[in-house]
Amino acid sequence: MLSRLARRVSTCVLALLIVPSSAVSICAAASTPTTSNGDIVLWAKKATNINGAWSLVEDATAAGGVRIANPDAGASKLATAAAAPASYFELPFIAETGRQYRLWIRGKAQNDSWQNDSTFVQFSGSLAADGTAAFRIGTTSAAVVSIEESSGAGVAGWGWQDNGYGANVFGPTIAFDSARQTLRVQVREDGLSIDQIVLSPVTYTTAAPGAAKNDTTILPATVWNREVVLYAKNATNITGAWSLVDDATAAGGGRIASPDAGTAKLATAAAAPASYFELPFNVEPGRAYRLWIRGKAQNDSWQNDSAFVQFSGSLATDGTPAFRIGTTSATVVSIEESSGAGVAGWGWQDNGYGVNVLGPAIYFDGPSQIIRVQVREDGLSIDQIVLSSERYLNAAPGSPKYDATILTATATSSTSTPPSLTPPPTVTPPPTVTPPPTTTPPPTTSVSPAPLRVLQWNTHHGGFGTDGVYNTDRLASWIVKMSPDVVMLNEIERFTGWGNENQPEVYKNLLEAKTGKRWFYTFAQEWGNWTANGKGNLILSTVPFDSVDHYELVNNSDRSIAEASISWNGRRVTFVLTHLDPDSATLRLTQAQEVTTWAAASSDVRILTGDMNAWPDQTSIAHFNSLYDDSWSVAVAAGTAIAFAGNDGQTKKGRIDYIYYSKGSTSLAVVSSQVFDTSDANGYMPSDHRPLLTTFAVR
After folding, report:
1. Computed over its alpha carbons, how large is the radius of gyration of the chain?
2. I need a surface site. Which of 173, 188, 432, 511 has the fewest CB within 10 A?
3. According to the model, what pLDDT value does residue 37 have?
4. Could you tell me if residue 262 is left (phi over 0), alpha (psi between -120 and 50 degrees) or otherwise beta?
5. pLDDT digits (tens, 9 = 90+) for 446-477
6. Quick one: angle between helices 619-627 and 585-599, nearest 10?
7. Residues forming beta bridges with residue 290, ordered by sequence position
8. Are strands 88-94 and 48-51 parallel, antiparallel or unpaired?
């Protein structure tokens, strides 16, 4: 029941877009950093589940070069929103519970007609001011946004309006019942285009982000982070003994240092320390993060190697506040791994102490956070801080000694300028003629296709064949024979009675040994205890993951989702793997709905696979088919589906394993899909399921 992420801006500087006679204003943060204001900026070009009359249109004046449009067809204005609309689009986002948000939309009415200027807006978990459900998806309740400010005011080009109607009339604010949310926009009047949607609890609660007519304001889209990499050289609020130092071996060419003054080690952190520095960052609330610091002890002395670390909104595993700024509670990071291990040059350590001892994971109460590092022992230098929810959850980013690892700093929407040795990359350009980021080619730009081979296979508890023999090598050999780029495996066991070994590691190691390639994986244990032993879903990839996520299904607690995103041929492709209930068709439908709702918050280029335990005629499959294209069915229709004698797609007793992909995607096309006969000479298979492999063209 984890969530996903939030942040954004204020004043504007003018820049000229590199298209004829077009000027746009790119907004940058003013004195209040966006890490504290919680504004959410969504670009319509990133919309998911685009249905009916809505479509993406290239537009150099729009955010990201693309708007979403519903052309004027002369249809009458609708009086009420639909519970199940034919035309809508959706955008996922992360909100902070307990905050009131003002809704703003930047829209453009076709032919500058007031009859083309309004829309219905709904949310998955919105609340009215009194805490009751309001404007919910699946109901006829909706907020209305009209680009014309009031009757007779007229419309002209792009304009910002909220969900109030009338000069200086604000609509009701909106709160949310949980962090992870979906926004749905459905047709009220056709002829409307949209490029930006803002939900603001602070910056734009009493004033619009831009003008009501002929607006040129483009706000940077909100970015939420599951993997956070902070450069110490970008620190803010540097006080006391800490200072910035030039260092060619450090990330960004600078480290922050507290010189050795022979001061005794402090036993406890201070609620109001004299020496500290801070860095703002964004995270997913409710998600476990591992803290890592790359540090260097002066004179390679273990007496100069540790610091206290605190956060603005950190939580312990049980959800109680822990390691908070303004208290004496802090987590300790010592660069020496254990007593007597010594230090040498740069080294990575977490907040555990001892060989192979990991410190407690850290959770957060909201997306906007600040990390504070205060002196414990002087003589320490720091250049990188990592908060990792998966990639480095169980392994350090680099070596404990003589490390040379420099990670790419996490993109941040905050543009407050930290004190630094050289102008940092986040410095806002002066108001000169420079190309703004909105010139990025839209998703419809032609890209030469590249093949992507995706394998889906239920392994029957990690490799128990139909002969009753447990043989991981046999199953791994078949995987290699099919030459996949990404492998999606159900029923993988970690130290259970089925094999009694760490099967995620076993399969990673076997594939690396058999292919000579490096493989990466993420494992989602079925009970939602992501670091515990048990059965679950495993995604393996020949390329590193950009991000990963896990989710435990609310409906039936022994089912989970694994998710991973990769970059392939210039596209971000997100893989979603699940395994539905084997017994109840009713429960499977509920689970299918939960899976698609959760997955909607990820990349709009999605490949969803799994053992769905349902034949194609069941309601759960009909639900998947309403939102995704079934790659096997597409291949059958194109004549590129491949099976073997006596098989027309059955993966067990019927077709119950599926590889789906984003419906109507222009970035994915099915080249072929194949069910393999893995029987040996005696008719035995390495699993009781047959593998399904689809080759996509990614463009």
Report:
1. 27
2. 432
3. 65
4. left
5. 447 899 999 999 999 999 999 999 999 999 99
6. 20
7. 388
8. antiparallel
E strands, 86-226, in order:
88-94, 102-109, 118-123, 126-127, 143-146, 158-162, 175-176, 180-187, 192-200, 217-218
What end-to-end distance do the CA atoms of the chain give, in Å? 33
pLDDT band (50, 70, 90) for residue 558: confident
- pLDDT at residue 20 above 60? no
**434, 16 in Cβ contact below 8 A?**
yes
**H or E, element range at 451:** strand 450-458
Helix (H, G, I), strand (E, B) or coil at 425: coil
Residue 415 pLDDT grade (very low, low, confident, very high; cuts 50, 70, 90) = very low
Contact 536, 494 (CB under 8 A): yes
Q: How far apart are CA 523 and CA 499, in angstroms?
A: 17
pLDDT at residue 603, as a whole number: 65
CA atoms of 67 and 56, how far apart (whole Å): 6
Alpha-carbon distances, residue 338 vs 143, 305, 356 (angstroms):
58, 11, 9
- Neighbour tally for 532: CB within 10 Å: 12
Phi, psi of 287, rounded to the nearest 5 degrees: -110, 140
Mean pLDDT value of segment 516-535:
89
Dist CA 135 CA 122 (whole Å): 5
Tell me how crowded residue 284 is: count the other CB atoms within 10 A of its CB. 24
Phi then psi for 507, rounded to 5 degrees?
A: -70, -35
Q: Does residue 667 contact residue 629 with C-beta atoms inside 8 Å?
A: no
Tokens of 673: 């899909």
